[in-house]
Design brief:
With 1006 residues, the chain is mostly helical. The chain folds into 8 domains: 2-119, Winged helix-like DNA-binding domain superfamily/Winged helix DNA-binding domain (Arc Repressor Mutant, subunit A), CATH 1.10.10; 265-402, Rossmann fold (3-Layer(aba) Sandwich); 408-490; 500-565, Arc Repressor Mutant, subunit A (Orthogonal Bundle), CATH 1.10.10; 566-696; 698-788, Serine Threonine Protein Phosphatase 5, Tetratricopeptide repeat, CATH 1.25.40; 801-887; 893-1006, Alpha Horseshoe (Serine Threonine Protein Phosphatase 5, Tetratricopeptide repeat), CATH 1.25.40. It is built from 49 helices and 13 strands. The strands form 4 sheets. The chain has a 5-stranded parallel sheet with strand order 8-9-10-7-11, sandwiched between helices. A 3-stranded mixed sheet has the order 2-1-6. Helix 4 (99-108) packs antiparallel against helix 5, helix 5 (113-125) packs antiparallel against helix 6 (139-165) and helix 27 crosses helix 29.
Length: 1006
């Protein structure tokens, strides 16, 4: 973890991700610990600095709380980072690596002039503004800010002097002038400024600047300029030749940078580092990815390390030759011309020189380049070579640096900058993101597209990218011809391929996304050919390993596939390939291999969709039906209900009179999925589902879909399912039915039976290796443990559930289990942890578009807010979901929300509002049928009546609620007694203890 103070206080993970430190006091604590640079800061000083005007009631506890918050923020970003904040008498210290340490290391580095200047420039580039900018007014940082400002100015002076020695006086004039105006009494700066003025022929200005300095020193400090400055002034008057600029010689033919290099900081650093430790470095990547630009910038940064120069040799114009000897001669001549020696003397000329050669665009000459460069490297120990090529040289000692397309943010930045420079107006962020994604983050493609924004706008440009080769056929007149249009760039790469490689590339275009080697072979691209295309940067390797084409390459190869007349045949091969995969995967989704096969199908999502669309377009009903039947359970597990419905409809829409059994199964799946989505179609869907093939386990699916509806009717369906599965010996079906029955039993208050069913379900699912089933069953067990007051067991089960759900990528389930942990934290009155769990759960659910999980999480935030007395915040949380819950078929959460809103009204003293809310809540609880929900409604009504002069009725309602809870073995836990205790104390104050007890007892009598 890295910490920054050369600007606003900042924290980054080792991967460069910013870390958010909440609350100003916590950030101030961090700042003071950073100021100490690893030394212990006494607690007393920290308290005094953090609360300079008004001390908290318990200062030590307040400081400890801020330390805990800081540790929690660091740990959330990087596991183990909380240990960086060390408690050590008499206070705390921070084991931190800051940008100050990096700055000082660079400043103190030694070496050759240009190398030192580069390191000083890198050191000054670390500065983001005033040190500790967000706390610079605080007394505890002032000395550090002054010290660091002085170090920065000293570095600026040293860099200015080095640049003068390197002959960069003209470039320095403006910078030094600004610095002298801001720091008029810094003598080193003034001396550098005078030399720069003198060397650019501005002698009188240099003498005038010296005069102004002398007058100011005398007026303000009563001093004369230093002896060095006086001697410099005399040298200017004499026009001393020793003050002239040092002689320079041509040491490079690198072109000047016209535009800024964007999004390549890490890659550039990697290339520079590679050049420092390797004599042959090759930047490899697809055409248009920016290899040449990075190579030139890397060469520029290391130029100071090569006393005899850095030379760029452009090879794109060299033609391939049938004669290897002729090609080598042409290559040697090109290098000799760039360096400025005779080609026959090239090896001798380089043998005693310190030189960097940059050989740009070698992909069409890789064999020749490898041979000649190998020979030169052996004969010239001071030679280093930087190569750009679409494929490696495969030479001894070669270090590869792979140049990949730009990341999303950098691609968008590049596109916007280039479009604006070309006079375009960029307003629609989503369209820019779509363009960058469709163009794969290729800098050349982005720059070509940016030139069209002025005439088309980004939205229209994005819409036309399917015809990108025609649309991007102009835009750049500079640079080599292969970079002037997108088609020319891809043509160049295509023409370098052998015929078998071209066949393989065009056939790979049938895959909608990345593919495995097996899938590539299925369409006629062997592993060997795929490997050769990877070497040529036309196929990318992604995790798996899997193989994909950049979209521009894919579209181009698709054109070539159609030109070859192979499109229909290769599409048919792809349909067969992915249909077989789906059928192979389906049974694996119910057991030990569930996680692996979910991952495999996730990776193939785009390909599966594409082949389904292709089968529908071809009117191939059998293939389409086979595919959707095999994928139905996968779609269910992933919660992609809408996708499943559309797929079933598409497949059934082209189904012929073929396999009726297959068609019947798909109709059954369609009915079951429809039940999950739309309860209004329950009767028809249920009949259709029950008529379907047994493989669907229709009775269980019907019960699962019904579980939010009328409980009694659903229990009947589940019991029928359980009997069916026990008769058939279907262990998975038995476990699934028991899981649903356990959930229903808990809702009915049959807690012992629910616990037995859930435990048996979990045991079977665990034996089968079905993690989805385990997640479901352990959720019921956790909720039952919570009801019984075994919070440790409940939390353990929820943590297991979170782990299993995350392993499977079941993010909706993970959200629910995080909320479960939040509920346990509430019961343990750990409000901070409860808020953290519920906030994480809510964010995760919102990202997935999972409304039930989002609602469950936000209700948890409302519960926590009310228990802390934050009634307005709690009401906002509950009100947000009330209407949404009322529109659900069974309204399962309505009783809780109405009860909470009723308690809020009662705590505000509004008896009539509380009575109305709890009355509505009682009706909702009766509809749901959960005894605990009824008890909650009676407790709420008791609170309302305690404010409206019906104290006797309120006492009886409390008794009725207690009886209901005890009848199902779920008495109110101590952590949840605050409302009942508040209402009880109010009633005892009104009735007296004896009368209250008598009425409470009457209420407990059925």
């Amino acid at each position: 973890m890295r910490f920054g103070v050369l600007g606003p206080v900042a924290v980054w993970t080792d991967d460069g991700e910013p870390v958010r430190i909440p609350e100003r006091k916590v950030r101030a604590l961090l700042a003071e610990l950073l100021v100490s640079e690893g030394r212990v800061v006494p607690a007393a000083r920290l308290i005094a600095d953090l609360w300079p005007e008004r001390m908290p009631r318990d200062p030590a506890n307040a400081l400890q709380l801020r330390v805990s918050q800081l540790r929690r923020a660091l740990e959330a970003a990087e596991p183990g980072a909380r240990d960086l904040v060390v408690s050590q008498p008499p206070g705390y210290r921070l084991d931190a690596v800051t940008d100050v340490a990096e700055f000082r290391s660079l400043v103190e580095a030694s070496g050759e002039l240009r190398s030192r200047a580069r390191r000083l420039s890198e050191a000054l580039a670390l500065w983001r503004g005033t040190p500790y900018a967000d706390f610079s007014a605080e007394p505890f940082v002032r000395a550090a800010v002054d010290r660091l400002d002085e170090e920065r100015l000293t570095a600026v002076e040293s860099l200015s002097e080095l640049r003068l020695e390197l002959g960069e006086h003209a470039e320095l004039i403006g910078e030094l002038g600004d610095l002298v105006r801001r720091h008029p009494l810094r003598l080193r700066l003034r001396a550098a400024y005078l030399k720069a003025l003198y060397r650019t022929g501005r002698h009188s200005e240099a003498l005038d600047s010296y005069r102004r300095l002398r007058e100011r020193l005398k007026e303000e400090l009563g001093l004369e300029p230093s002896a060095e400055l006086m001697e410099l002034q005399q040298g200017i008057l004499r026009q001393d030749p020793r003050l002239d600029a040092p002689p320079t010689r041509r040491r490079s033919n690198l072109p000047a940078a016209v535009t800024e290099l964007i999004g390549r900081e890490q890659l550039l650093a990697e290339a520079v580092s590679a050049l420092k430790t390797n004599r042959l470095v090759t930047l490899t990547g697809p055409g248009g990815v920016g290899k040449s630009r990075i190579a030139i910038e890397a060469a520029r940064q290391v130029a100071g390390d090569f006393a005899d120069g850095v030379w760029l040799v452009e090879l794109a114009a060299l033609e391939r030759s049938d004669s290897n000897a002729a090609a080598v001669i042409g290559l040697a001549e090109a290098i000799a011309a760039a360096v400025g020696v005779r080609d026959r003397q090239l090896a001798d000329a380089l043998s005693n020189q310190s030189v960097l050669l940059v050989l740009d665009n070698c992909e069409h000459l890789v064999g020749c380049v490898a041979g000649l460069i190998g020979d030169l490297l052996r004969k010239a120990p001071g030679l280093r070579v930087l190569v750009t090529s679409q494929e490696p040289l495969a030479a001894n000692g070669e270090r590869l640096v792979v140049v990949r397309p730009l990341a999303v943010e950098a691609a968008a930045e590049l596109f916007v900058l280039r479009a604006s420079a070309a006079g375009g107006v960029v307003e629609e962020d989503s369209a820019v993101a779509a363009i960058c994604d469709r163009l794969d983050g290729l800098p050349l493609a982005l720059e070509l597209a940016a030139t069209r924004v002025r005439s088309l706008g980004v939205t229209e440009l994005s819409a036309r990218l399917d015809d990108r080769f025609k649309m991007l056929e102009s835009g750049r007149r500079d640079g080599p011809r292969r970079h002037q249009t997108l088609r020319a760039m891809v043509d160049w790469s295509w023409e370098l391929l052998s015929e078998p490689e071209q066949v393989a590339l065009r056939r790979l275009s049938v895959h909608a996304d990345s593919c495995t080697l097996e899938a590539a072979a299925a369409v006629g691209a062997s592993a060997e050919l795929v490997g050769r295309l990877v070497d040529r940067s036309l196929v990318s390797v992604v995790d798996g390993p899997r193989y994909r084409l950049l979209e521009s390459i894919k579209l181009y190869a698709g054109e070539r596939l159609r030109e070859a007349g192979e499109a229909a045949e290769i599409q048919r091969r792809a349909i067969d390939c992915y249909g077989c995969l789906a059928v192979q995967a389906e049974p694996k989704l119910y057991g030990h291999e569930q996680r692996d096969w979910l991952g495999r199908l996730d990776a193939e999502t785009a390909n599966l969709r594409a082949v389904l669309d292709a089968a529908v377009a071809l009117g191939d009903g059998e293939s389409a039906l086979r595919l959707v039947d095999a994928l139905a359970w996968y779609w269910f597990l992933r919660g992609r209900i809408g996708e499943a419905e559309r797929a079933f409809a598409a497949a059934l829409g082209i189904a012929g009179a073929g396999d009726e059994g297959l068609k019947q199964r798909v109709v059954g799946w369609q009915a079951g999925i429809r039940l999950l989505r739309d309860d209004s179609a329950r009767g028809t869907a249920a009949r259709t589902l029950l008529a379907a093939d047994r493989r669907i386990r229709a009775h269980w699916f019907l019960g699962f879909a019904h579980r939010g509806g009328a409980v009694a009717a659903t229990v009947e369906v589940v019991d029928a399912a359980l009997a069916e599965y026990e008769s058939a010996g279907d262990q998975w079906g038995i476990a699934a039915a028991l899981s649903v029955r356990g959930t229903l039993g808990r809702a009915r208050g049959e807690l012992a039976e629910a616990r037995r069913d859930a435990a048996r379900s979990e045991e079977i699912f665990r034996r089968l290796g079905d993690r989805w089933g385990q997640v479901k069953a352990t959720n019921s067990l956790a909720e039952l443990a919570e009801i019984s007051g075994d919070y440790e067991r409940a939390a353990e089960l929820h943590r297991d559930g979170v782990r299993m759900a995350e392993e499977l990528g079941l993010w909706g389930e993970a959200s629910l289990r995080l909320s479960g942990l939040g509920r346990i934290a509430l019961l343990q009155r750990d409000f901070a942890a409860a808020e953290e769990f519920h906030t994480r759960a809510m964010k995760l659910a919102a990202e997935q578009g999972n409304k039930p999980a989002e609602e469950f999480a936000e209700l948890g935030l409302g519960l926590g807010a009310r228990r802390q007395g934050k009634l307005d915040i709690a009401e906002r949380h509950f009100r947000r979901w009330l209407d949404w819950l009322r529109h659900l078929d069974s309204q399962p959460g309505v009783p809780l929300v109405l009860a909470e809103l009723g308690f809020i009204a009662e705590q505000r003293g509004d008896g009539s509002a509380a009575l109305a809310l709890h009355t509505e809540g009682l009706a909702a609880a009766e509809a749901v049928g959960d005894p605990r929900a009824l008890a909650l409604a009676y407790e709420g009504l008791a609170g309302a009546h305690s404010l409206t002069d019906d104290a006797l009725g309120a006492a009886r309602l409390l008794g009725r609620a207690a009886h209901l809870r005890e009848s199902v073995g779920a008495p109110l836990p101590p952590a949840e007694r605050a409302d009942v205790d508040r209402i009880t104390n109010r009633l005892i104050g009104t009735l007296g203890n004896t009368t209250f007890t008598a009425e409470h007892t009457r209420g407990r009598t059925p």
